[in-house]
């Protein structure tokens, strides 16, 4: 980047708020109604911020006795977290929290997911528990190995689960519980549906992604990364898959027959610093990215234009998220810094 | 290195006393805080420590190498433990009785997140003095666990005579002459003799002199795992050594359980230390040769189907021209 540090910090200092929270930021998210932002920390707490009044205090909520392991927005508002205390916890926008399930004394709730139609899911070891809106257990799905990630499709009809040897697709409402298994050798540690539900993508123990086109089970291998890929994000309409794990943002085209046989596009590279987090704008073809040195930026896919959001120096970026309307960005770092930036027109 | 957390691996057959040792480590007043990863619900009495129940999951790496296996559960758990604010003085991993220690050890060399946050401290193998010889007869795992051991706790000494104990030690040294044996009853070894040993530190490779068995021939036993060591006094050429060891590990890696070496490179005042677990190797310069010492290069193999003349010729062929 050619910007000086003060330039790179312009948006955070002029249009945002930042706090040292004192523990590893495991994840950050905005509630689905956009009225709250949350940072889940390695000390088991959740910090809540009011996006409409971000300069006010960010209250702390004791969600887990241990560490938070995963955070997603809950069904309509609020947040859902899993922790190494074996609990699945819902925290409302106002900070009221309730334990939805205690799933293991010495086992962890590694991954959580939710869907706006009223579904929640949590994984403990090899099992994924799927819950209805009222908290009733719809299903307990067992996999051949520990679960690496869970994702609902856009319609909330299917849930995808990553594990050793591939991914399993389950129908949430089917009477018979038999998954469609998408096989691929190796350990799969995260899973995502494309927004239109036609593709499933996983991240792997190796420095690679794998994908399947569901119509014909065609495999897609996406490799060549220098590090494990811990973050991927589809653009709003699903044309691009943005990924971390290289010293730039790597974008795979999911159109015109891609990504098979198409080279990926690279953005915001050149500094030799590892990209650790990506998050695509919910509507536009813009991707936010966080790097190992703490830099946070936005890049426009069409033009390649890059705008810095926060300067390097506050720890490797470990969490990054847009609000539902795409006007705000939240990010957090391994050393416990959290930032919230407003990009809306004034 | 200093801010990585040491991980002690506890192996041993069912009934060898692993849970007793864990309880001892966790209940003694040593002022240290440990996280313990167990694989079966044992009766652990713990206050200040974190116990995590995990299923052992051995994953093949997707790189075409069948011995490149890692423990997926450790990748997941060790990666997440680093995010906690309360830091641990150490992490102890208990393996099941039938576990092969190789995937556990390899996890510390293969996974970037694990490597960044933790280091393998030592592999501690508990054996039951009364039953070890029978186990060696009927299980490959018992041999592997000894072959990988840095420290062997020879437990249940109260149940054997001195002669029986000596015979058990003889069998252990035949498999692994570099193991340090601690005799114990009810796992009563000092905590510091098994935790915080730094045995995988390259600087400490071959620090321990092997227990050579007087008047014994290592080949007279039925053990299928054995050890061989070789020495050369002339300096070793780094290029030749890398080519040779690279090919050897590639072709024989499955049989080579542990390999350790200290090398004297020409024109270099520092010792080069080398170690491998199956095919996965690690090496670095580890400080100067002691003043006035003989700069001998030395390599040790612990494994199966070792061909002594072939290995000797190979190592001797690495001597600098």
How is this structure best described in words?
The complex is a heterodimer of chains A (346) and B (321). Chain A has 346 residues and is mainly beta. Chain A has 2 helices and 30 strands. In chain A, the strands form 7 sheets. Chain A has a 6-stranded antiparallel beta sheet with strand order 14-15-16-17-18-19, with no helix packed on it. In chain A, strands 1-30-29-28 form a 4-stranded antiparallel beta sheet. A 4-stranded antiparallel beta sheet of chain A has the order 2-3-4-5, with no helix packed on it. The longest helix of chain A has 6 residues, at 10-15. Residues 1-5 of chain A have low confidence and may be disordered. Chain B has 321 residues and is an alpha/beta fold. Chain B has 2 domains: 5-214, Rossmann fold, CATH 3.40.50; 226-316, Hypothetical Protein Yjia, Chain: A,domain 2, CATH 3.30.1220.10. Chain B is 28% helix and 28% strand. Chain B has helices at residues 18-27, 72-81, 101-110, 112-117, 132-138, 140-148, 162-175, 238-252, 308-316, and strands at 5-12, 34-38, 50-53, 58-60, 69-71, 90-94, 118-128, 151-155, 180-183, 225-232, 256-263, 270-277, 280-288, 297-304. In chain B, the strands form 3 sheets. In chain B, strands 3-2-6-1-7-8-9 form a 7-stranded parallel beta sheet, with helices on both faces. The two termini of chain B are 36 Å apart. In chain B, 43% of the residues are buried. The chains are: A mainly beta (346), B alpha/beta (321). The interface between A and B is medium-sized, with 34 and 29 residues.
Task: Give the structure's gist in a few sentences.
Chain A has two helices and 30 strands. With 346 residues, chain A is mostly beta strands.
